[in-house]
Each structure stands twice: as C-alpha cells, then as structure tokens.
Specification:
The complex is a heterodimer of chains A (176) and B (166).
Chain A lengths: L1 H35 L3 H5 L4 E6 L4 E10 L2 E10 L4 E12 L4 E8 L5 E10 L2 E6 L11 E9 L2 E8 L2 E11 L2
Antiparallel strand pairs in A: 1-2, 1-10, 2-3, 3-4, 4-5, 5-6, 6-7, 7-8, 8-9, 9-10
Chain B lengths: L1 H27 L3 H5 L4 E8 L2 E10 L2 E10 L2 E13 L4 E8 L5 E10 L2 E6 L11 E9 L2 E8 L2 E10 L2
Antiparallel strand pairs in B: 1-2, 1-10, 2-3, 3-4, 4-5, 5-6, 6-7, 7-8, 8-9, 9-10
Classes of the chains: A alpha+beta (176), B alpha+beta (166).
C-alpha cells in the first residue's frame, strides 16, 4: 500500500518537475524573443538633433532630424564655406508595421524623383539603410549605408557598394 | 497605273493611320510632375462644423512638400506632412506621408488620367487598383478650385471642395 503511494508520489514529483522545467524553458525562449525585437522608432529617436560632417575643406554637410508625431522629419543640406547651400534633401521617416522597419522617403533639390529606402536597427547603436526596391533580398542590395552611433554625439557612416566600403563619413552632433 | 494608284492609296492610308496611333500615344502620356504643379499654393475647405482643412503645396527641387492641417477653434486637430516625387519606373507620383497622431508612414501612388484629374491609392494596392481599400479622386474644376472625393472599398465616404487661398 505504502509502496504504491510512494510510486504515485514519485510520478507526481516527476510530472511536476517536468512542468516546471517546461515553464522555465518557454519563458526563456520568450525573453530571448523580446530581447531581439528592437523598437525601431525609439532607437531612431536617438538621432534627433543636428549633425555636421566636414566633407572637405570647402564643403560642410548638415543633417537635421526632428520628431513629428511618432515619425521624423529630416533635412540634409550641403553648404560652401560662404554658407551658400548648393544641395538640399528633405525626407520623412516613419514605421512600416508590416516589415517592422522604418521607411525613409526623400526628395532632392536636384531631381523630380522620389527616393525610398528602408532603415532598420540591428542593435541598439547600429542601423542599415538600403533602397526599398531591395527589401525582398537585402543581401543582394548593390548600395548600402551602415551607420554606427559610436557615442550619443558621434555617428560613423559607411557607404558600401557590392559590400565594399566606398566612403566613410563622421558626423558630430551640434549642440542645440 | 490602276495598281500603282491603289498601292499609293494603301501606303497613304497606312501612313496616316500609324501617325494617328502615334499621336494618340503621345496624347495619353501625361507629364505627371508638371500636372501636380497645379496644386502649388494654399487651399482651404470647410471640412466639418467648426473644422477647417488647409492644404499647402510647395515646390522642392523637382518634387513637392505638402502640409495638411485640420484646424478647429484656432487649434490644430490633425496635421499631416508629405513629400511627393516622381516614380520613373511606373510613370506616376509617390506621396509619402507622416501624421502627427501616428508613428507610421503611408505610401500612396498618384496618377493623372487627364490634365485635371488624378487618382490616389495606397502603393500596396497598385497591382489591383480596382480593389484598392482607399481611394482619393481629385478633379480640378478651375485653377482655383478642386473636388476631392474619398472612397473606401469603392464607396464614396466624403466629398470636399477646396478653394485656393494663395
């Protein structure tokens, strides 16, 4: 009688142990998934402000990012030393729910065309930008921009063609 | 002689017929960017009781920047900002829109079917425009007035008449 009870208890203990193990295992997986899901909009918010890049001795680029609603309004301008603006681009950035990425849409002072890009953070301080037309196979994208926030006030951008770095630019945050 | 005359008549009719077809193709190819320039300026309409809708379009390079505001009792209720530019591949315009009440971006396609009329649908519906969930039909009645008809699932939901302010 006692041994039967003991066997039954052993069975219960084993079942309970398995259930607890499964519970921890599932929560572990859930925690991992949550960790890898980055909040693209919040991460882009780190960039709000004005950034400057000394392109060469005569040309300075300014990159201004402002919040608008939950999205962003961006203006890039290229200035000569005498502050003449010779190039400007305006874009809006917002969230693309379907792909969990951001979309940047841009018009430029030297073209009637619209340029569409997708932007996504791969970690809290790194993000990639490619043309929207390459969204289905990003690895095949001929052009790519890789950004890294080296600090809250410094961004390094690598412009790549066929996975080869063509140009590196360093952007410093301007104090407001 | 008779054969030669007949051949000349056939050749001439073929020449005029081909020319006609060519002229027709040229006629149907509308300059989408030029036509959108009709919107440059500030437009206004009485949207609802106590709510006024303002639509401002400015040139930016060869494209456009658009700002839309719904104001009630001197306060902005909604605000939408967009850029509009040419999509060479599809010979149409694309409007990318962000809203003050959302973090999302909406992409719309715009195509003029005649010099004073265009349709706007979500870019995701471009392969089946007839099934578009949302649609805006805009028609200029004069350089200072246009009608904007908004449809969902091909049913008219709202018709607004916008008049030029500037």
């Amino acid at each position: 009688m006692h041994s039967q009870k003991f066997i039954q208890m052993k069975k219960w203990c084993l079942t309970f142990a398995i259930a607890v193990f499964l519970l921890f295992f599932v929560s572990g997986i859930q925690a991992q998934t949550t960790q890898t899901k980055l909040n693209q909009v919040e991460l882009y918010r780190q960039l709000t402000g004005t950034w400057k890049y000394d392109y060469n001795t005569d040309t300075i680029l300014f990159w201004e990012i402002k919040s608008f609603g939950g999205g962003f309004e961006v203006r890039v301008r290229a200035e000569l030393k005498d502050r003449t603006i010779f190039y400007e681009a305006k874009s809006f950035i917002g969230y693309d729910n379907k792909n969990d990425r951001l979309i940047e849409s841009q018009v430029k002072s030297n073209s009637p065309n619209i340029f569409l890009y997708i932007v996504w953070f791969t970690s809290s301080n790194r993000f990639i930008e490619i043309l929207l037309e390459n969204i289905s196979s990003p690895e095949k994208s001929t052009e790519k921009w890789a950004f890294e926030l080296k600090s809250p006030d410094l961004i390094e951008t690598n412009y790549m063609k066929s996975d080869k770095i063509i140009a590196v630019s360093i952007w410093n945050r301007l104090k407001e | 002689m008779k054969v030669l005359s007949l051949a000349i008549i056939i050749a001439l009719s073929l020449f005029f017929c081909t020319g006609g077809v060519q002229a027709q193709s040229t006629q149907t190819k509308l300059d989408q960017v030029e036509l959108y320039k009709q919107f440059i300026g500030v437009w206004k309409c009485d949207y609802a009781k106590d709510t006024t809708f303002f639509w401002e379009t400015k040139s930016f390079g060869g494209g456009f920047e658009v700002n839309m505001k719904w104001e009630s009792k001197g306060e902005i209720v909604f605000e939408v900002k967009s850029v509009v530019g040419y999509d060479k591949k599809n010979d149409m315009l694309i409007e990318a829109m962000i809203m003050n009440y959302s973090s999302n971006i909406d992409l719309w396609s715009i195509r003029f079917s005649s010099p004073n009329k265009h349709e706007e649908i979500l870019l995701k519906d471009i392969s089946h425009p007839e099934k578009a969930s949302e649609k805006d039909i805009v028609e200029f009645l004069s350089p200072d007035m246009f009608i904007d008809t908004y449809l969902t699932n091909n049913k008219v939901v709202k018709i607004d008449t916008l008049r030029r302010v500037k």
